[in-house]
Structure formats: structure tokens, C-alpha cells
């Protein structure tokens, strides 16, 4: 499941409700009020990822003929792609590095489903972070002879996880009246 790029799952999520042609997908990925805040994906990179998703059978592309204009490819999510996306949505981000992008992208799509989906996502992520924090604390207490650098790293990582947990609780408190955000 982790071998696929986060941006590929974002493409699957954008196709969740209806098929779209490539330029529409690119506009959604680049939207400065949405996924464009998370990362920048070039159009050629997006089309390369769509090709990989098509090869895997996660999306299906069909040509749409247009009068006096070139045909355009329309991408549709397959049943296998829908399953892959749903499975990815239920997998918490592992560690702080993945929190920065993967969790935020999952949150973007969970918001489209509403408060219950966001709360479930937060609950899974909190559980994962608490487990990681516990493991980190156990490892730090079992090392009586830890170097100053090791102690610094443990302290830094512990602070990051605690900050993320605090942010999750704060966001969840603000999330009580969240309205689903639908595509334009």
C-alpha cells in the first residue's frame, strides 16, 4: 500500500465522485485554496502518475471526441481504484514526516465526507502517534548510557509528536460543525 505516491491517491480521491479530464484534475491539484497548499505537481508528472494508475487498473481512461477540437482523455475511478483509495484513507500516517503531507491530504478528502469521517481519521492518527510516542519513550528510558546527541534527538522527536497530538485535539474541537466541501 505504501509504494504508491500520495499524489496518486489524491488523484484517486478527486475521481471518487465522477470522471474528469486531465486538465480538471490538474486544476484541482493546483488549487491554492486546497491541495495546491500541500505540494506542487507538474502537469507532465500528473499525467505520468495517471498512466501508472491506469496500468495498475485503478483508473480507466476513455477518449472524448470534441467538435473542431482535439479529443481529450477522461479518467474514471475503477472498483479496484476505489478500494485502494478507501484502504489508504484508513491507514494513519507513520511518523511526523508523513504527517506533513499524507495526513493533510487524507484530511482534505475526509472533510468532503463530513465531520464523522474527519473524527475517525483523527482518532486513528492519534492512536498511531500515541503508540509511536510510547515506543520512543520506552526506548529513551531503556538507554541509560545514551549520548547527549541521542537525548537531543529523543527530546526533539517527542516534542514533535506531542505538538501533533495537541494540534489534532485542537483541530477536532474546531471540527464539530464542519460542513463537507464538495468539488466545484
Strand content: 5-15%
Structural class by SSE content: mainly alpha
Average the pLDDT over all residues and give the rounded result.
Answer: 89
The shape, in one word, is elongated
Distance between the termini: 30 Å
Query: In which range does the helix fraction lie?
Result: 55-70%
Strand order of the largest sheet: 1-3-2
- As an assembly, this protein is single chain
Structure report:
- It is a single chain.
- Helix content is 63%, strand content 10%.
- With 184 residues, it is mainly alpha-helical.
- The protein folds into two domains: 1-89, Winged helix-like DNA-binding domain superfamily/Winged helix DNA-binding domain (Arc Repressor Mutant, subunit A); 94-184.
- It has a three-stranded antiparallel beta sheet with strand order 1-3-2.
- A hairpin with a 2-residue loop joins strand 2 (59-66) and strand 3 (69-77).
- Helix 6 (115-141) runs antiparallel to helix 7.
- It is elongated.
- The chain starts with 5 loop residues before the first helix and ends in a 10-residue tail after the last helix.
Comma- or semicolon-separated keywords:
2 domains; mainly alpha; 3 strands; three-stranded antiparallel beta sheet; 184 residues; Arc Repressor Mutant, subunit A
What is the fold's blueprint, element by element?
Blueprint: H1 6-14, E1 20-21, H2 22-30, H3 43-56, E2 59-66, E3 69-77, H4 79-89, H5 95-113, H6 115-141, H7 148-174
Antiparallel strand pairs: 1-3, 2-3
Provide a compact summary of the structure:
With 184 residues, the protein is mainly alpha-helical. It has helices spanning 6-14, 22-30, 43-56, 79-89, 95-113, 115-141, 148-174, and strands spanning 20-21, 59-66, 69-77. It has 2 domains: 1-89, Winged helix-like DNA-binding domain superfamily/Winged helix DNA-binding domain (Arc Repressor Mutant, subunit A), CATH 1.10.10; 94-184.
Amino acid at each position: 500500500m505504501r509504494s504508491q505516491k500520495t499524489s496518486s491517491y489524491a488523484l484517486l480521491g478527486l475521481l471518487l465522485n465522477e470522471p474528469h479530464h486531465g486538465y480538471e484534475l490538474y486544476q484541482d491539484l493546483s488549487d491554492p485554496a486546497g491541495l495546491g497548499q500541500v505540494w506542487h505537481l507538474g502537469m507532465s508528472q500528473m499525467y505520468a502518475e495517471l498512466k501508472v494508475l491506469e496500468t495498475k487498473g485503478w483508473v480507466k481512461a476513455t477518449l472524448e471526441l470534441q467538435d473542431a477540437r482535439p479529443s481529450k482523455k477522461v479518467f474514471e475511478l475503477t472498483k479496484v481504484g476505489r478500494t485502494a483509495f478507501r484502504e489508504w484513507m484508513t491507514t494513519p500516517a507513520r511518523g511526523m514526516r508523513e504527517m506533513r503531507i499524507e495526513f493533510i491530504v487524507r484530511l482534505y478528502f475526509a472533510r468532503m465526507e463530513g465531520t464523522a469521517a474527519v473524527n475517525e481519521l483523527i482518532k486513528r492518527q492519534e492512536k498511531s502517534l500515541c503508540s509511536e510516542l510510547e515506543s520512543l519513550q520506552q526506548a529513551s528510558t531503556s538507554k541509560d548510557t545514551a549520548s547527549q546527541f541521542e537525548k537531543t534527538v529523543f527530546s526533539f522527536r517527542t516534542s514533535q509528536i506531542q505538538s501533533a497530538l495537541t494540534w489534532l485535539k485542537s483541530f477536532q474541537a474546531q471540527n464539530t460543525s464542519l460542513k463537507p466541501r464538495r468539488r466545484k
